[in-house]
Design brief:
heterotrimer; A alpha/beta; B alpha/beta; C alpha/beta; B: alpha/beta; Rossmann fold; 3 domains; four-stranded mixed sheet; 22 helices; 10 strands; globular; C: alpha/beta; 2 domains; four-stranded parallel sheet; 8 strands
Chain lengths: 111, 425, 237
């Protein structure tokens, strides 16, 4: 379970949240794997809703979390996207702000 | 104006603010890399991959072009900036494009694409918030990852015509304005952080998601990229994704790392650009082609932090810029390799182990003309007897005269007292 | 063991006491030492200013007969190392020589607290300590050899001297030096010191630059090359 704890910790560091369930009105999608070292998830369904929605919820199987990005790349052979947390910027005088262009909130529903 | 003049101007205006902001990022970076116990091994791996890439660049370009076409991506090869700009303009003319949304690409800065397209009646909107800020200010980015690091929140409020200087408020305002541009643009242009030769994919890393909106909303997505961004395989990408964001901003990974294949329901075009790179492979500066533009050498450079990016006057500033700029214009940028104390910090943070100190010394030689007096001085210093003679002359020189000839030193610092006698008599 | 002492040209001209203390220290440590009279310069001023120089080859000829060459300067030693000459591998900076070859520790155990300026070439070129840029365990050879209370600056960045840089970019060089000086003399460090703070380091060039600022701005500090500190400490041991 160490990997799961690390994943959650790093997801939160990246501004993401853990959801008990995917709330109504949020864009919902499924991730194929998660990465413990940075809290990112891999999604191979690359659609505009991932970026246009204010809130995105991603469903992830706890058993598909790997330790590092290098390990993740052993399973990835197609186009797609790694996402860690909500869209963000610090371009206004180094202040971190969520929701630069894409989602303002980004949550993972672990199953 | 040269670096030392612009540096004085910048520091007198900014004070230590710019240095503090960048040092904070350097510290975040240190913390992030220390969380990866195999960090130094990763740097070695990344360096070896890039060594392989520069030794095999011709083959990797061919392999990439073949595989990208197979994937369903249109690929062009541009030998220089002019050819690149024309290819992009023709693609845009074909679809009668009036407005394009652009996300960060140092390559398009290098080619002067924005100015070229504007001249041809195409409205170019930079969409990275930092780049949009500098675009509205009529400036160039001052840092390759933090383009507006030289500005304050008051500056941003001013260009938006706002009184409220709250960063969240200003960011939301920019988001709203730029969202309209994304939805009405005819094409998107982005750079790429990596190209995967084995698959023909392009990889783009951002925090804002602007590259993705530009890639997915308009029917045409153009990727302009330098050939040195090639890496052999998906496995190699794993190494670089672990390194890039940690070294750049101290994040474990960027918010978005998109691997692009063919575009569903639209066109994706990749323009590979040489612009002197194949030639550079044959020179002593070929190792600069290993650079992944993480920007850590800028952020850590004690001179850059105090002089600001614009003092370098080139699209890529800082230590790596001081190596690249003179290669593009030796006369104009001959001061840059000297805007450096050879402190080695850039070399220590470089994730692909570019030997900065060695290259900067080589670059100093490259921009310096032979000087008869210096040559004579060097020769005479081979002899201890002649050296002793010089030593005597200096001891007989009156102090005011010494202060005058060491003006740049004496203006700020006391000269050391010259003792009556040297050690080896 | 046959040791040749290399005295960097600017130390010979401007800081003969540092040269003298280096020689005395090594002789007090019973090292068989020679100081070739025909030595001049390692070539660094030319090589770093964009000119060719064969002074490293000249160095090679002068020091050929010695088992080791020792020099009280990390920047001159790194010039010799990087020149890829025969002497490259047998030339050592003073502290490096004491630490790695003679295996000496705690030579200044009873010395009052000092503030150490880790110069760039000591830290990043010769790796006499762990630079903050790398992910390697902390160590500092200068501290090990000293053994007294050693205080450091919070940032291990460059002091802004940089040889030719200090005259080409006088202003930024000064700004960097001033912030280094402020950092070395930070409040936490000063709290641990009773008398006039002693700033030490392995490169007299950095210390000369910092002293130049301190003198002009009446900042109270004493600047002592590491050879002087070690020699004084050893004599009272």
């Amino acid at each position: 379970m160490e990997k799961l704890d690390k994943f959650i910790q790093n997801l939160k560091k990246a501004g993401g949240e853990v959801l008990d369930e995917a709330p109504d009105g949020w864009y919902k999608t499924k991730a194929l794997l998660g990465i413990a070292e940075n809290g990112a998830v891999w999604i191979d369904e690359y659609v505009k809703e991932l970026f246009l929605s204010e809130n995105v919820a991603v469903i992830l199987d706890k058993n598909s979390i790997v330790e590092t990005t290098q390990e993740a790349m052993e399973y990835i052979n197609t186009p797609g996207i790694f996402i860690s947390g909500p869209s963000k910027t610090a371009d206004v005088e180094s202040f971190l702000v969520y929701g630069a262009h894409g989602p303002i909130r980004f949550g993972i529903h672990l199953i | 104006m040269k670096h030392y003049e612009l540096a004085v101007e910048f520091y007198k205006k900014q004070g230590p603010r710019h240095d503090r902001a960048l040092w904070a990022i350097r510290q975040k970076r240190d913390k992030a890399i220390k969380e990866v116990k195999e960090w130094e091994k990763l740097r070695q791996q990344a360096s070896e991959i890039k060594d392989y890439v520069i030794e095999n660049l011709h083959n990797l370009v061919d392999e990439f072009m073949k595989n990208a076409k197979k994937e369903g991506i249109e690929v062009y090869f541009a030998k220089d900036a002019k050819e690149h700009n024309e290819i992009v303009l023709n693609l845009l003319k074909e679809i009668d494009a009036k407005k394009i949304v652009k996300s960060k690409s140092m390559l398009t800065e290098e080619c002067g694409l924005n100015e070229f397209l504007e001249k041809n009646g195409i409205n170019v909107i930079d969409t990275d918030l930092g780049e949009r800020i500098v675009q509205l200010r009529g400036e160039k980015p001052s840092h390759i990852v933090l383009p507006a690091i030289h500005t304050t929140k008051e500056d941003v409020a001013e260009i938006l015509g706002e009184n409220n200087t709250d960063p969240t408020y200003l960011t939301r305002k920019m988001r709203k304005l730029l969202r309209e541009e994304f939805l009405s643009a005819d094409a998107g242009i982005s750079g790429a952080n990596f190209l995967i030769a084995q698959k023909g994919y392009a990889v783009v890393c951002t925090n804002e998601g602007n590259a993705d909106l530009g890639a997915i909303l308009p029917p045409l997505h153009i990727i302009s990229v330098g050939i040195e961004k090639l890496i052999p395989s998906m496995k190699d990408l794993g190494v670089f994704l672990r390194i890039l964001a940690r070294n750049a901003t101290g994040q474990a990974i960027t918010t978005y790392s998109s691997i692009f294949g063919k575009k569903e329901g639209g066109r994706r075009v990749i323009v590979l650009v040489d612009n002197g790179r194949f030639e550079r492979l044959k020179t002593e500066f070929k190792e600069t082609l290993k650079c992944i533009r993480c920007s850590a050498c800028l952020t850590t450079c004690p001179v850059f932090r105090r002089s600001g990016g614009h003092s370098y006057r080139y699209v890529i500033p800082g230590p790596i810029g001081s190596l690249l700029a003179p290669l593009s214009d030796k006369e104009e940028y001959s001061d840059l390799p000297f805007a450096c104390t050879l402190c080695d910090s850039c070399e220590m943070v470089c994730p692909v182990k570019i030997p900065f100190s060695k290259q900067l010394r080589e670059m100093r030689k490259y921009v310096t003309n032979e000087n008869i007096i210096i040559k004579f001085a060097e020769k005479s210093m081979h002899s201890a007897t002649v050296f002793k003679l010089f030593s005597k002359i200096i001891r007989l020189t009156p102090k005011p005269f010494l202060e005058k000839i060491t003006n740049e030193w004496s203006r700020y610092k006391a000269l050391p007292l010259i003792p009556k006698e040297r050690f080896i008599k | 063991m046959n040791i040749g002492l290399f005295i960097p040209c600017y130390i010979n001209e401007l800081f003969p006491e540092v040269a003298r203390d280096t020689a005395l220290l090594l002789r007090n440590l019973k090292i068989n030492l020679e100081i070739p009279r025909n030595q001049t310069c390692c070539g660094q001023p030319f090589l770093n200013s964009g000119y060719e120089s064969t002074l490293p080859q000249n160095f090679d000829e002068i020091f050929e007969k010695y088992d080791f060459v020792v020099a009280p300067s990390s920047s001159c030693v790194s010039t010799i190392r990087e020149s890829n000459i025969k002497s490259s591998n047998k030339t050592f900076e003073l502290v490096e020589f004491l630490h790695d070859i003679l295996q000496i520790r705690d030579l200044a155990k009873n010395y009052p607290p000092v503030i150490l300026h880790n110069s760039c070439h000591s830290l990043r070129a010769l790796l006499e300590g762990a630079p903050s840029e790398l992910n390697i365990p902390y160590f500092n050879k200068v501290k090990n050899v000293l053994g007294c209370k050693v205080l450091e600056a919070k940032r291990d960045e460059c002091c802004g001297f940089g040889g030719v840089f200090s005259v080409k970019e006088g202003f930024i060089s000064y700004i960097m030096g001033k912030s280094k000086l402020d950092d070395l003399l930070n409040e936490e460090n000063l709290k641990q010191i009773k008398d006039t703070p002693i700033i030490t380091g392995v490169d007299m060039s950095c210390l000369m630059h910092l002293k130049g600022i301190a003198d002009k701005e009446n900042i109270k500090a004493e600047f002592k090359h590491i050879a002087t500190v070690l020699k004084e400490a050893h004599e009272t041991l």
